[in-house]
Amino acid sequence: MTQRQPRRAYDEQGREIPPPTLADLRAEGDRTAFVHCDATGCGHEATISTDQFPAEMPFPDIALPLRCAACGSKEVGVMRDVVGIYARPRERTGWGMT
After folding, report:
1. Alpha-carbon span 82 to 87, nearest angstrom
2. Fewest beta carbons within 10 Å, which of 62, 63, 78, 88?
3. pLDDT tens digits, residue range 35-52?
């Protein structure tokens, strides 16, 4: 059995589900990512631009070259910028959640 990648999702049969690339997310209007430090006692968070990364890069892999700006740890996690996602409809329509 092959070792599973921690930044990948798998289906019921154990097959890897390909993650979205930055090109996929940019096509949806996402150009930022929410980054958080998982080092014990740190918890630093930031929203970064994904423009510095190549379009073909799988989204979870943008965490690989990053270091926490507060403590220098490589224990960095990344997720889609949900605040940015919810801001787009508000900008287009004026409607949004409170």
Report:
1. 8
2. 88
3. 999 999 999 999 999 999
Mean pLDDT within 63-91 = 89
Per-position DSSP letters for 49-94, written without gaps between them? ESTTS-TTSBGGGGGTT---TTT--S-EEEEE-HHHHHHHHHHHHS
Question: Per-residue pLDDT averaged across 46-60, rounded?
Answer: 96
Task: Give CA–CA dist 77/96, Å, rounded.
Answer: 27
Contact between 97 and 86 (Cβ < 8 Å): yes
Token pair 């959640």 in the structure block, residue: 97
Dihedrals phi, psi of 96, to nearest 5 degrees: -175, 175
pTM higher than 0.85, yes or no? no
Nearest to 25 by CA among 53, 46, 66: 53
Neighbouring CB atoms inside 10 A of 68's CB total 20
